Amino acid sequence: MSTLKKTLILIIAALLITGCTTNHKDVEKQALTGYVTEKDFQKKGLLVIENDETKTSDENFYAAEWYFPKEEAVFLDSKGNNISYDEIEVGHTVSTWSTTPSAQSYPSGAELSKLVINEESKNPINQMDEKSAIQHAINYLKSKHDDGIIIKSASGQKDYWQIKATDYDHKKETNLQIHAQTGEVKEF
User: Which domain of life does the UniProt lineage start with (predicted)?
Assistant: First the structure.
């Protein structure tokens, strides 16, 4: 074999090997914005589900994703300050970013690269915030139902929070009133 052919083969082989081993940087993309509805301390996972204000698809589908933070994941409060994973609570409205595609399940799963807690709204008259109202609603619904919980909306009224919820299959719509001073939950 001629020297030119050997050199050409070596160059092509080197290019192929280099192309196959190049380290590609992960591409971060914004994922879901929604309520944190569960926090798994053992697996270090957060279940985030879209709500009526944040959903991106048709009227009857709420995207849901279990996020598992990467070691280098960034957590920020609504003012852009770094916070720890432990400061994220069920009921927070969050925006998420991921570098991995979602698993094909419901709820799906992905690695979490960044999470930002969105600004919280307060009840106009009393001091119960939206996160606390959602926590009361989720605890109440978990005691009554075994299905997954989707919080569709939360709105502060004169002296209570009105929460609309459903299950994963959209078979059971539930409307709740959470008293903003006592935390008492009533279905209506």
Answer: Bacteria
